[in-house]
Write a structure and sequence with these properties.
This protein has 347 residues and is mainly alpha-helical. The protein has a domain at 30-169 and 248-336. 63% of the residues lie in helices and 6% in strands. Strands 1-2-5-6 form a 4-stranded mixed beta sheet, covered by helices on one side. It has a two-stranded antiparallel sheet with strand order 3-4. A hairpin with a 5-residue loop joins strand 3 and strand 4. Helix 6 packs antiparallel against helix 7 (201-213), helix 10 runs antiparallel to helix 11 (280-297) and helix 11 (280-297) runs antiparallel to helix 12 (314-336). The longest helix is centred in the first third of the chain and has 30 residues, at 64-93. The chain is elongated, with a radius of gyration of 22 Å.
C-alpha cells in the first residue's frame, strides 16, 4: 500500500508514511491517529471484559461497555485536552490567550492532548465512577491501568506514522529523518522545498508559486504536497533528505516502553498475584509509566520549553510527581489489602 513508503539515504530512513489509511474525498479521510484511539478503546473493552469474566476485576462484565464509553469521554478526551491546555498551552501562550479564545479548549487539532492529563483524567473519572457504583476506587483502577498502556501503544504508533513527536538528533550510523522538522527551520525549509520542486516541476510548480505568494500560510501545505509527490518520485525525497537531520525514532521507543512493556508487566502482576491489595497495580502503573517516560524523553525532541534548560523536559518534570502518587497507591494497597477479586461488585 502507498502509505508504507520511504527511502533509505546513507543509513537513515526518510520518513514519508501516509497519515491517512483511506481517503474518501478531498475533505474526509480515515486517519491512522483516529484509528489508534478506536483500537485503544476496543482493546480496553475486550481486555476488561475478559478480566471481569475471570473475576479479576471488581466491575461486572455487563458494565464494561458503559464504563469504557464514559472513561473515553470524561477521562481520556476531557482529561487529555485540559491537561494540554494547563500543562503546555497556558505556560507558553499565557492564560489570557485561553480567556480570549475559549473555544481553543475543545479544538484538539491545536496542539493535541496530554498523556499526563489523560492519566489524571482517568484517575478522577474512576473515583466518581466507583463512588456511584459502590466499587472499590482502587480496585476499578487496577483493571483500567492494565489495558491503558495498549492505548498509549497505539497512540505512539500513530505519532510515528504522522512523523510527529520525533526524536533528538543522533550521531549513530543509522536513524531516521523526519521532514516535518523543516517546519521549524525556515531557511532550510525554503532550500529543501526549492530543490524538491526542481526535481519534479510538473507536479510541484503550482504549490511552489502558492508558497511564494504567502510563505507563512502555505508551509504546511507545500511540505505535505512535496511528500505526497515523493511517494511516487524518489528523486523528490532525495532532494529533501540532505536538509533533514538523522534522529531517534523516539515514538517507537515510547510505544515499546510505555505501551507493550508496561502492559505485559501489569498483566503478569494481575494474573500471578490475585491477592494483591487494591491499588498496588495502580501504583505500579504510575511508577513504571513515570520511569519509562523519563527514559524515553532522553531520546525525544522536547516539544515545548524546557523546565530546566538542557536538563529536564516538561514530560520528565510532570512524570516526577507520578512517583509520589504511585507510592501512595502501593502503600495503601499493601497496608489495607482490601477487597476480594473472587466476588466482583458493582450495580
Amino acid at each position: 500500500m502507498s502509505f508504507i513508503t520511504g527511502i533509505c539515504v546513507m543509513g537513515a530512513w526518510v520518513h514519508n508514511l501516509k497519515p491517512e489509511l483511506i481517503e474518501l474525498s478531498d475533505t474526509f479521510a480515515l486517519r491512522w491517529y483516529g484509528l489508534a484511539y478506536l483500537a485503544g478503546f476496543v482493546a480496553g473493552y475486550l481486555g476488561l471484559k475478559w478480566l471481569a469474566r475471570k473475576k479479576l476485576w471488581v466491575v461486572q462484565p455487563e458494565k464494561v461497555a458503559d464504563f469504557i464509553a464514559c472513561a473515553a469521554l470524561f477521562g481520556v478526551f476531557l482529561g487529555g485536552r485540559l491537561g494540554y491546555v494547563l500543562f503546555y498551552m497556558i505556560p507558553e501562550s499565557g492564560i489570557g490567550y485561553v480567556v480570549e479564545n475559549p473555544l481553543v479548549i475543545v479544538q484538539v487539532w491545536k496542539g493535541g492532548m496530554s498523556s499526563h492529563g489523560g492519566i489524571l483524567g482517568l484517575t478522577v473519572f474512576t473515583y466518581f465512577y466507583a463512588r456511584r457504583s459502590g466499587c472499590s476506587w482502587t480496585g476499578v483502577g487496577d483493571g483500567l491501568v492494565i489495558f491503558s498502556p495498549l492505548g498509549i501503544f497505539f497512540g505512539r504508533i500513530a505519532n510515528f506514522i504522522n512523523g510527529e513527536l520525533y526524536g533528538r538528533v543522533t550521531n549513530a550510523a543509522v536513524g531516521m529523518k523526519f521532514p516535518k522538522e523543516l517546519l521549524e527551520r525556515e531557511e532550510e525549509f525554503h532550500s529543501a522545498m526549492r530543490d524538491a520542486v526542481e526535481a519534479d516541476p510538473e507536479r510541484l510548480d503550482a504549490l511552489w508559486d502558492s508558497y511564494l505568494a504567502s510563505p507563512a500560510n502555505s508551509q504546511g501545505r507545500l511540505l505535505e504536497g512535496v511528500m505526497e509527490a515523493g511517494r511516487e518520485n524518489p528523486a523528490i525525497i532525495d532532494a529533501v533528505a540532505g536538509y533533514v537531520q538523522v534522529r531517534h525514532p523516539s515514538q517507537l521507543y515510547q510505544a515499546l516502553l510505555e505501551g507493550l512493556a508496561l502492559f505485559a508487566i501489569l498483566l503478569v502482576l494481575r494474573l500471578r498475584f490475585r491477592a494483591l491489595g487494591h491499588g498496588v497495580i495502580t501504583g505500579t502503573f504510575f511508577i513504571l509509566y513515570a520511569t519509562f517516560r523519563i527514559i524515553a524523553e532522553g531520546f525525544r525532541e522536547p516539544d515545548s520549553a524546557w523546565v530546566i534548560e538542557d536538563l529536564l523536559t516538561k514530560g520528565q518534570f510532570y512524570s516526577i510527581f507520578m512517583y509520589g502518587i504511585g507510592a501512595a497507591f502501593v502503600a495503601a494497597g499493601l497496608k489495607g489489602r482490601t477487597g476480594s477479586l473472587d466476588h466482583p461488585v458493582g450495580s
